[in-house]
Amino acid sequence: MIQVKDLHKSFGKLEVLKGINANIEEKEVVCVIGPSGSGKSTFLRCLNLLEEVTSGEVIIDGENLTDPKIDINSIRSRVGMVFQHFNLFPHMTVLDNITLGPRKIKKMSKSEAEAAALPLLEKVGLSDKASVYPDSLSGGQKQRVAIARALAMEPKVMLFDEPTSALDPELVGDVLEVMQDLAKEGMTMVVVTHEMGFAKEVGNRVLFMDEGIVMEEGSPQQIFDNPQNSRTQSFLSKVL
Amino acid sequence: MEALLNSDYMKPMPYLLEGLLYTLLITFVGLFFGFVIGAIMGFGRLSKNKLIYGLSSIYVEIIRGTPLLAQILFIYFGLSQLLDINMHKLVAAILAIALNAGAYIAEIVRGAVHSVDKGQMEAGRSIGLTKTQTMRYIIWPQAFKRMIPPLGNQFVISLKDTSLFSAIAVGEMVYQAKTYYATTFTPFETLSMVCLLYLVITIPTSLYLRRIERRLDV
Ligand SMILES: Nc1ncnc2c1ncn2[C@@H]1O[C@H](COP(=O)(O)OP(=O)(O)OP(=O)(O)O)[C@@H](O)[C@H]1O
Ligand SMILES: [Mg+2]
């Protein structure tokens, strides 16, 4: 589903990604862990071209994102993204947040888009919040709306960048539960996370990133119970 | 009652109200075009294109760095000479307000658009909207809300600025007052009424703006 080949990304002189290779299969849930500043967010953002790739290839669903002729907007609508700080549109109701994409990009009518949005709201457990504004939601509710908003575009892949790290601890569970349900339904997911419990339970594979490369990868058991790389070992000893 | 209506305070009123009409006309029409110019220049100031950024910055700096009276004289006399035309006074006045307010509005627009969280653009792009769509449906509505108080403030400033057009004999309120008291010798009474008429517009506007501002804050 996603092939990343020798991906490099620099900000000016600062090289943040130094040759990432990764293969993500359909329906796979890949968790990306690693210390702060290691380039996890940058990697994720390269997967829907929120960052311009410096060199290397990113192929999603058979389409090469680094091909200059590619229609970036159409790729983006097939790759959902969930941000740490939700980034809901504060001037729109929850329902409008969710239907904006389908209406403007898929050219659905308002009623069509709303009919499609309601089951999504139900899925994230917020059916009663359709007509409220994001301001009146808790962080966990906001993040679940953000997930519904991304799902409304019927993406083939969902990218999550630390979706729970801005949340109060007691609100984390609801969001993780929604993500777990998504995984069960067979959504292909790439999740940057500090929730090692989630990575262990839901992840099919874990990538450990440090200093702009994938230092180690393997099944959650391999990475958490029997890490080979000394960097992985010292990182895990700090977070577990 | 009779005495009040016939007092030296009330007698200039018909002239002043006629002037007020011009004052308001120049302000509203000027600010309408000023907003169009300001929006274009404001986006120019946000552009990554160096030429567009440079041109809009030069415009903003020239206008903000020179006095309005000089701009008015420049447009009315200078441009007329350069283009060899007879510019209508009212056209010159509206153009002057539009160009002058445009520069300040450009900064208002730039600031407001810039103040919208970067994550909003990313979220819009990530669901597949183009840059233009994201600007139109997501950034602009949020930015526009934040522009309302400073735009209202600019309205008050431009309204007062129209008094400078008495320098080119545009029949706005101050000019009307000057021609009136030149023959009646009642400048105190006449100018008191001029100030009163300005305040009748500016004070309620300011109060209203403060209320909006408070509402936007929460
Ligand atoms: N737009 C940018 N311009 C310049 N440098 C950037 C930019 N974005 C990220 N960086 C730098 O790239 C490096 C990697 O950042 P990134 O956000 O990918 O790390 P991360 O692994 O997600 O860290 P965290 O766990 O703190 O979120 C950091 O040194 C950061 O300062
Ligand atoms: Mg990050």
Automatic annotation (TrEMBL), chain A:
The answer on whether this UniProt entry bears the keyword Nucleotide-binding reads yes
Q: Does the keyword Membrane apply?
A: no
Q: Which residues form a coiled coil?
A: none
Please give the Gene Ontology molecular function terms for this protein. Answer: ATP binding
Q: In what residue span(s) does the ABC transporter domain sit?
A: 2-236
Q: Which domain of life is it from?
A: Bacteria
Q: Which InterPro entries match?
A: AAA+_ATPase, ABC_ATPase_HisP-typ, ABC_transporter-like_ATP-bd, ABC_transporter-like_CS, MetN_ABC_transporter-like, P-loop_NTPase
Name the keywords, alphabetized: ATP-binding, Nucleotide-binding, Transport
Gene3D superfamilies given for it? P-loop containing nucleotide triphosphate hydrolases
Question: Which parts pass through the membrane?
Answer: none
Write down a Pfam family by its short name.
Answer: ABC_tran
What protein name is recorded for this chain? Amino acid ABC transporter ATP-binding protein
Species, as recorded:
Mesobacillus maritimus
Automatic annotation (TrEMBL), chain B:
- Positions of the ABC transmembrane type-1 domain: 20-209
Checking InterPro entries in the record gives: AA_ABC_transptr_permease_3TM, ArtM/GltK/GlnP/TcyL/YhdX-like, MetI-like, MetI-like_sf
Q: Where in the cell is it found?
A: Cell membrane
Domain of life, source organism: Bacteria
Q: Which residues cross the membrane?
A: 20-46, 58-78, 90-109, 190-209
Q: Classify the main location.
A: membrane
Membrane topology annotation: Multi-pass membrane protein
Q: Tell me which PROSITE patterns the record gives.
A: ABC_TM1
Give a Pfam family name: BPD_transp_1
Q: Which Gene3D superfamilies match?
A: MetI-like
Keyword vocabulary terms for this entry: Amino-acid transport, Cell membrane, Membrane, Transmembrane, Transmembrane helix, Transport
Q: By its UniProt entry, which PANTHER family does this protein fall under? A: GLUTAMINE TRANSPORT SYSTEM PERMEASE PROTEIN GLNP, MEMBRANE COMPONENT OF AMINO ACID ABC TRANSPORTER
Tell me its family: Belongs to the binding-protein-dependent transport system permease family. HisMQ subfamily.
Kindly provide the name given to this protein in its UniProt entry: Amino acid ABC transporter permease
Protein source organism: Mesobacillus maritimus
